[in-house]
Amino acid sequence: MKALIVAAGQGTRLRDIAASKPLALVRGVALIERVIEAAHIAGVREFVVVTGYEGRRLEAFLAALAARRGYAITCVRNLAWRQANGVSVIAAEQHLGERFVLMMADHLFDPTILGDLIAAPVPEGGAVLAIDRRLDNPLVDLEDVTRVETGKDGAIRTIGKLIEPYDAFDTGFFLASGALIRALREDIAAGGAGGISAGMIILARSGLATTFDIGARFWLDVDDAVAHGHAERMRA
Fold first, then answer.
1. Which pLDDT tens digit goes with each residue over 68-83?
2. For an engineered disulfide with 26, which of 15, 75, 148, 231 has Cβ 3.0 to 4.6 Å away?
């Protein structure tokens, strides 16, 4: 299985801790190294990392990591890194197969989440999003997290920031197909920004965006100093 990791943004909310968010240290280890290590434990064997802001520095780190740990890592530079996150997904298209895992460079997680997601069935021409139904999860920033509304069958009805009603949180882990990239292009062609959530909404309209419930397992979006403090207090 190949994983696409989006690591192109500025990470301004973590700037006081690190100039490059993927390289912010968590218990002495770079955030993106922890992400890649957890994905490798889950069964991912190839990584495509989309860089942008501080790209050269991040790419140099990843080259050294690949040499040190034996990981297969390909870097793709997104020159339009100021744009929506789906633009980074499109930038990596030629390096991906029809089925791949989509991840964020700043989301820590229990590797079993990704392992189970990889084994999940993907709708033909669709995508699966790992969701957290614990609406009282103390590690979630309710004002920043992407919210999800699902149907009784677990299909996504809609997804976005601050939406109402909602019954789950987007954890940032997707089992995707080329259909998501095509949906992102469709959104941009229609005048949209090309955000990943917009692509998922397009798939959802055709019943092609489903969910996988992670249960009580750990995940954390390390997006600001508060979340970084949570990460530093992890047991491992």
1. 999 999 999 999 999 9
2. 231
